[in-house]
Amino acid sequence: MLIFEQSHSGRASNAQLPQDNEALASLPADALRTSKPNLPEVSEMQVVRHFTRLSQKNFSIDTHFYPLGSCTMKYNPRACNTLASLPEFTGRHPLGPSLHGQGFLSCMYELQGMLKEVTGMQAVSLSPAAGAQGEFAGVAMIKAYHDERNDTARCEILVPDAAHGTNPASAVMCGYKVREIPTGKNGDVDIEALKEAIGPQTAGIMLTNPSTLGVFDRKIKEIAGIVHDAGGLLYYDGANLNAILGKVRPGDMGFDVIHMNLHKTFSTPHGGGGPGAGPVGVSKRLKPYLPVPIVGKKEGQYVLLDEQDCPKTIGRLSAFAGNAGVLLRAYIYAKMLGREGMSRVADFATLNANYLLKRLMSAGYDAAYPERRATHEFILTLKKQAKELDVTAMDVAKRLLDYDFHAPTTYFPLLIPECLLIEPTETEAKETLDEFVDTMAKILDEAKMQPESLKNAPYSLPVRRLDDVKAVKQLDVVWQELNQ
Amino acid sequence: MLIFEQSHSGRASNAQLPQDNEALASLPADALRTSKPNLPEVSEMQVVRHFTRLSQKNFSIDTHFYPLGSCTMKYNPRACNTLASLPEFTGRHPLGPSLHGQGFLSCMYELQGMLKEVTGMQAVSLSPAAGAQGEFAGVAMIKAYHDERNDTARCEILVPDAAHGTNPASAVMCGYKVREIPTGKNGDVDIEALKEAIGPQTAGIMLTNPSTLGVFDRKIKEIAGIVHDAGGLLYYDGANLNAILGKVRPGDMGFDVIHMNLHKTFSTPHGGGGPGAGPVGVSKRLKPYLPVPIVGKKEGQYVLLDEQDCPKTIGRLSAFAGNAGVLLRAYIYAKMLGREGMSRVADFATLNANYLLKRLMSAGYDAAYPERRATHEFILTLKKQAKELDVTAMDVAKRLLDYDFHAPTTYFPLLIPECLLIEPTETEAKETLDEFVDTMAKILDEAKMQPESLKNAPYSLPVRRLDDVKAVKQLDVVWQELNQ
Amino acid sequence: MPFIPHSEQDIEQMLSVIGADSIEDLFDEIPASLRCGDLEKIPQGMNEMEVTRLLRDRAAQDGLPLCFLGAGAYEHHIPAAVWEITTRGEFYSAYTPYQAEASQGTLQLLYEFQSMMASLMGMDVSNASLYDGASALAEAVLMAVRANKKSKSRKILMPVTTNPVYRSVTEAIVNNQDIELVAVPYDSETGQTDLNALDSFSGEDFSALVIPQPNFFGVIENVDALTAWAAENKMLSIAVVNPVAMALLKPPGEWGQTGVDIVCGEGQPLGVPLASGGPYFGFMCCKQKHVRQMPGRIIGRTTDLDGKEGFTLTLQAREQHIRRSKATSNICTNQGLLVTAATIYMSLLGPEGLKKVALNSHKNTQLLRNRLQAIKGVKTVFNAPNFHECVLQLDMDVKQLIDTLAREHHILAGFEVSAHYPELGNALMVCATETRTENDIEQFATTLDTLLNG
Amino acid sequence: MPFIPHSEQDIEQMLSVIGADSIEDLFDEIPASLRCGDLEKIPQGMNEMEVTRLLRDRAAQDGLPLCFLGAGAYEHHIPAAVWEITTRGEFYSAYTPYQAEASQGTLQLLYEFQSMMASLMGMDVSNASLYDGASALAEAVLMAVRANKKSKSRKILMPVTTNPVYRSVTEAIVNNQDIELVAVPYDSETGQTDLNALDSFSGEDFSALVIPQPNFFGVIENVDALTAWAAENKMLSIAVVNPVAMALLKPPGEWGQTGVDIVCGEGQPLGVPLASGGPYFGFMCCKQKHVRQMPGRIIGRTTDLDGKEGFTLTLQAREQHIRRSKATSNICTNQGLLVTAATIYMSLLGPEGLKKVALNSHKNTQLLRNRLQAIKGVKTVFNAPNFHECVLQLDMDVKQLIDTLAREHHILAGFEVSAHYPELGNALMVCATETRTENDIEQFATTLDTLLNG
């Protein structure tokens, strides 16, 4: 039942109402609202009950194994939330003077330092609000770099075909054309194709390494050389940073700019789709262009550096200093991990992924790249099952929900047919992986013996399989009865 | 799955481990533990996931209508929890000096004052940890009063047969014999029986008014006169205070001592069975005997009064000052209600109960006292249905669970056969009551048409009906595998 | 090993299944020359107890000064229930609802949010949020350029009364796509957008006119006239509004003859704490006809196999993960958790409550304005109605005043307007929401008086 | 009307169904002469915003001093997850699990709690909690009198080293049932219960001997000897223990030849905040043979109609709601929410973690003791091993010292032992748990040194 359907004229959560007030002589009548907005009129208990019950309809890390590839759904430590919610942190006005912000700013300053070290970059700005905004900032810095050198013929960004959709979209946001580079059959970038595509029109390349195919591109140094030799710069999409944390650094691979998804690698909550945080790190030559504000130190005090301090900056991406509360959670997480904890993330994310891959292969599933090491994630392809049994990756995904597992990412990357992209993360126990394998084996049996149980799945959730086509064709995005 | 079944030797929630430590030269070897306690060895995420999922198996006020008679399951305002959890409140040591406690103690002092006013008593001690401990304290004060006057022949406490089981049990804890007084057929105490029972052996009477039968005893002044004339004192069981808050005060009815259940009337959380808080209020003659500590004021400072300040006290009932955090929540609730809010509690609790009673009677259910006004609760008796349809009050209760309603109290009070004691509370909306009536009507239909659907209910919960007899006969109260 | 559940035995068994000798072996495809050593600049890990002590000490450094500062972020009372529910694990630790059947909680909530926002703004449709108010304005500008089929222009009229930081952010986001923001000056008497100046642009081709309400100075704009002017000149209109104000002021859907085309703004006042500036959320609503040009997630109601109502992501063909370089925006996440808080907040406040929040904020700001302008050396700058902010001119350096009040009196006096509008001299913008009491205002006024007049 | 959902229309419709003219009519059975008027001494209501401000101001008054005070309540680190989960509505706002099928969450958790406590104490069975440690001891005494069929005595041997407040509480609760507590003195050298003095009671009829571990002075008692002595003298033995200490020290089930009969204590150290003294929870474990004499809720594992495992309240025939005046106790509630916290706490800490908490507390107390006794004017009172508290004698009035340190240095110096043990002179008991750092200890020592020696 919708909250609106519990609404009742004249009802209110009375403890939340400010006092009544005198008339408003100072506001002109024609500026005032006369219609009542259709917000629900409900009691506080109704609100608590409604949203508590709604919450129970979600799968989440706190309730389910959630091996959604490319999303790094790992445990979000509760302490990060509790401590970032201390009243002084939540109550601090973003424009308050730095003297009332030394505590907060010192955390941010240290976070910048840790991110620099772990990525091998020379400077970091925390301000991008999410990965995609980090990508935008990164490409915008590449553009600013070329522009400043009057190297204006560079109008193209190269993007592998396996890349996240945000990569080409971000490049376009910066005014670039996008050229796709195909993947070789072993999962690495096709070097010959790259060489063909590159030229004086190339502003740079956007790469994820490990790629979205779940493999580490072994020729990364060669790629970096080719791009740099052509005068282009290398952008690192940090979506898969969890795989290599403390093992290998994008800066050492030759990247000029990187964004990090703190809501992945640094375990800040995904929150049902956000907020994220997408700090960018840069090599020395891009440092002048970093988005502001950046946390700096002046006369022993932490301060926010702005356009005056950083005259070549690409500017601001949000009104204040990015998703500060997310950054604070990432800081707390990083402090708990510490130096050794960073590389353990990669160790155990990789161990879990390779173990799960091997066991799923033994259970009868096909790996997209059976000859390669898995990184922190890997791809199964159900091409064979689709052909032989007429069940799709989507069917398997939906059936998993019935067994209390969130589904892996489906149909991404687009170049692998009927694929499942599976990322267990380092925080899951071996038993959970074993149960997942048992369930996947059971589903494969069902696919053979009773395929209907997959095709009509899920059965046990609050709703059965939803009609996405109808959702588009009979668009209903606002409660219509509101206006009746 | 039990948390122990997820345990794995060598696993730990590592962020929670204090540092390692050197050997313990200062502790004798024979004092040390050599066996490892069988606490679970699990990761932090496993703990979070396990207990989050367990929580989802509960019905609660935040998720369900919970009309459990005599328990006053009303909305527990979230602000009470948030504010009582401020770090300075949760971090305050109970033996810390009062100079570091003026904030907390001022709240307690004001709470004492509000409870005095709303009950019409002369003094209040907040220290009893729950209703039953309040009862104990109350009866102990009655005893101390008689003892001080050397009135030692008074060895009996009178208790109506409808009383809560805690009443006789508390009287016995104080060394009294208990004599039961029958209820008249209209639900009031049988005055003639009372007159017969009373005498020089009577120390006092324990009464709930409104009684557990859901009716207000109209002869309360006459009863008070009879007991006082015989030299006895009157104890008021505050379990049903919600019904009369701001309408009539136990002190004005003639009671000498009262306990309040703050977890009922003042909406502190029930917490799955506690903590409660059972402050006691007394008339002037019992004031010297109040349990300590009591919050007082000395030289403008709030202080805890102890045995030295109150030499006739019956003593202490817990190590510190009772369930302070519960008291703080009650204080916050009372501050939000304020003067007018108090009597509105009784208004709407009574309106909801009478409405629900009338509608359930129209739906075909029998009231235990159809001629009486309901107070904040009322009793249905399924005697007829048990006889005619062979379905019990328990069957109806279990079937309600399938329809997402918590069941009313069953089989209490003991003197009404096949009864359901229903208390909707003031915080439920009319629509919820209407849905409950519709469901009860549906269940009555089912009882006639398909009684199995009741007898085997519930069907839709995490477990079906449980075998209580087996639970007693094959007693399993500790995980046995622990010792294997 | 914080957050790693593996025992030694687990590791051995798993390596054996994999056929590797050590975890190190699993990284054998990474060229050895690239491997990094110890990350020496990263400190040793702390356990939760240690980090708790550290963060409490840091928080204590910052304190909680008495706040009269607004300028785009506002201190409102947030009911306790809002964040107690929002941080429930099922909301907090879930991801984007890609598997709709396993995410009905988040999806229904977002649908309810869209419905509330559309109604509050008087618009047809709403998305499920953007990053923040400033970047939402940038997205609105991009959207207007795409959506205005009648205009070939890539120029946007941007009043100077629009939050200057929003203008900077929009500039930074749209400038690589050759979009030009053309400033519209304000009337120095009223602080409102200058309608005469605007008229000088008549007949030129612009994609859209931006209309802030209230504007950055807290002043109520002539929104009907501005909206009508844009329509007459074949531009789209983009409202940038404070959502709390919309419970009191005429909503953008009712401005002019037909309402504006696009509404955006900062959602923070709806139950999101100040928190040093984020995470907040941007909102965006539009007319039905523009819905396919709107960026960001949109949730639709549909039915399942059994015909039962359910909710799902819809219009995904606009988005980057499908449409890649042709997407309406590169935006991928939304600010789901903040929207969760805002939806609970709006449900708790209801239409009356939200209006009272707006009214009390307005009233308190009037009290504050009256009390402060009675002080010698303080005068009001603009002669126009304001919502819950107000610009004052002082006989003192504003930067120094703000610093002194913060340092010595733990009062955040307001925003230094002169930094963005040097023509206003020593201008301070003050704000009082419903959280400020008469005592607070008196304390501020007395302190300010002493500072100015000894 | 805070928390009341009724509209005027609802009220009318409902009264019409009832057949009453007004809500007032519903109270017509209450004699008019009894009705009270306005409750004038109760202030007007506040909204949540106002009460939030009030409570924050009150909290700020109390501050958070640096704590070296124990004496029955201990500051330990509580993992954030503990209370974030405990206060989930489904635990927080549920009642006693009378409808087992709708309360499997609480019931399974309590079963797990019982299992953990029994194992931690080395005992057969556990209940689901009592009010607090002190009242748990009183209940243990009552239980022992019922359970010891060999003894006709209503006398209990109670060492003076038992927490003096626990002794007072027990006295207050049992004295109306003619039960007598007989004091056993302590050895003034060691602070342990005096075994020679105890021997003088040999041959007399007592129901039970109480054995604290560690005792109130923080001293480790000779628990094996005491337990054996009780068994030899046909008494039951009742252990009163600190549960954190039991991860490090030999548990009561292993004391003497056969272990003690009953264990009780204060559960607060297991994840419950200090919070001015409550709510905490008392725990109680016993040998299997005494289980039917144990007061309080007990949860059992059983099966449902389909044979599936489930949990339910069991042995209810002992309880007051069934057995009324013949119940084992009048206790009706338990401290379910605190037990929820403790169960999550013990799960997070595990056997190793809890042992490390005990070890670190012990180590820090040794550091503190060594550092303080090096100060001129400070000496250790007892020559015996201690756990995480230690009694010191000072060349200064202890009450004044505590007051000065609190007032001027925000340090809670410890407990004034002299109040209960005047024979010890100016005795201060200090405590350091795992939360105290070396810096904290140094700060305390330096301040104390200055105070004593200028």
From TrEMBL, chains A, B:
* Coiled-coil region(s): none
What InterPro entries is this protein classified in? Aminotrans_V_dom, GcvPB, GDC-P_C, GDC_P, PyrdxlP-dep_Trfase, PyrdxlP-dep_Trfase_major, PyrdxlP-dep_Trfase_small
What residue stretches are annotated with the Glycine dehydrogenase C-terminal domain?
347-449
Which EC numbers does the record give?
1.4.4.2
Q: Aminotransferase class V domain: from which residue to which, for each copy?
A: 156-271
A Gene Ontology cellular-component term: glycine cleavage complex
User: What's the cofactor?
Assistant: pyridoxal 5'-phosphate
Q: Which GO terms describe its molecular function?
A: glycine binding; glycine dehydrogenase (decarboxylating) activity; pyridoxal phosphate binding
Catalytic activity from the UniProt record: N(6)-[(R)-lipoyl]-L-lysyl-[glycine-cleavage complex H protein] + glycine + H(+) = N(6)-[(R)-S(8)-aminomethyldihydrolipoyl]-L-lysyl-[glycine-cleavage complex H protein] + CO2
- Locate the N6-(pyridoxal phosphate)lysine modifications and list their residues: 264
Keyword list (alphabetical) reads: Oxidoreductase, Pyridoxal phosphate
A single GO BP term for this record reads: glycine decarboxylation via glycine cleavage system
What quaternary structure, including any partners, is listed in this protein's UniProt entry?
Answer: The glycine cleavage system is composed of four proteins: P, T, L and H. In this organism, the P 'protein' is a heterodimer of two subunits.
Q: Which family does the similarity line name? A: Belongs to the GcvP family. C-terminal subunit subfamily.
Q: What does this protein do?
A: The glycine cleavage system catalyzes the degradation of glycine. The P protein binds the alpha-amino group of glycine through its pyridoxal phosphate cofactor; CO(2) is released and the remaining methylamine moiety is then transferred to the lipoamide cofactor of the H protein.
User: Can you name this protein?
Assistant: Probable glycine dehydrogenase (decarboxylating) subunit 2
Q: Which gene encodes it?
A: gcvPB
UniProtKB/TrEMBL annotation, chains C, D:
Gene Ontology molecular function, alphabetical? glycine dehydrogenase (decarboxylating) activity
Q: Which SUPFAM superfamilies match?
A: PLP-dependent transferases
Record's Pfam families? GDC-P
What's its catalytic activity?
Answer: N(6)-[(R)-lipoyl]-L-lysyl-[glycine-cleavage complex H protein] + glycine + H(+) = N(6)-[(R)-S(8)-aminomethyldihydrolipoyl]-L-lysyl-[glycine-cleavage complex H protein] + CO2
Task: Kindly give the CDD domains that the UniProt entry links to this protein.
Answer: GDC-P (cd00613)
Sorted UniProt keywords: Oxidoreductase
Q: What is its EC number?
A: 1.4.4.2
List, for all copies, the residue spans of the domain called Glycine cleavage system P-protein N-terminal: 3-446
Stretches assigned to coiled coil? none
Database matches in InterPro entries: GcvPA, GDC-P_N, GDC_P, PyrdxlP-dep_Trfase, PyrdxlP-dep_Trfase_major, PyrdxlP-dep_Trfase_small
Its GO biological process annotations read:
glycine decarboxylation via glycine cleavage system; nucleoside metabolic process
What family does the entry list? Belongs to the GcvP family. N-terminal subunit subfamily.
Functionally, this protein is described as follows: The glycine cleavage system catalyzes the degradation of glycine. The P protein binds the alpha-amino group of glycine through its pyridoxal phosphate cofactor; CO(2) is released and the remaining methylamine moiety is then transferred to the lipoamide cofactor of the H protein.
Subunit record text: The glycine cleavage system is composed of four proteins: P, T, L and H. In this organism, the P 'protein' is a heterodimer of two subunits.
From the Swiss-Prot or TrEMBL record, give the protein name: Probable glycine dehydrogenase (decarboxylating) subunit 1
Q: Which gene encodes it?
A: gcvPA
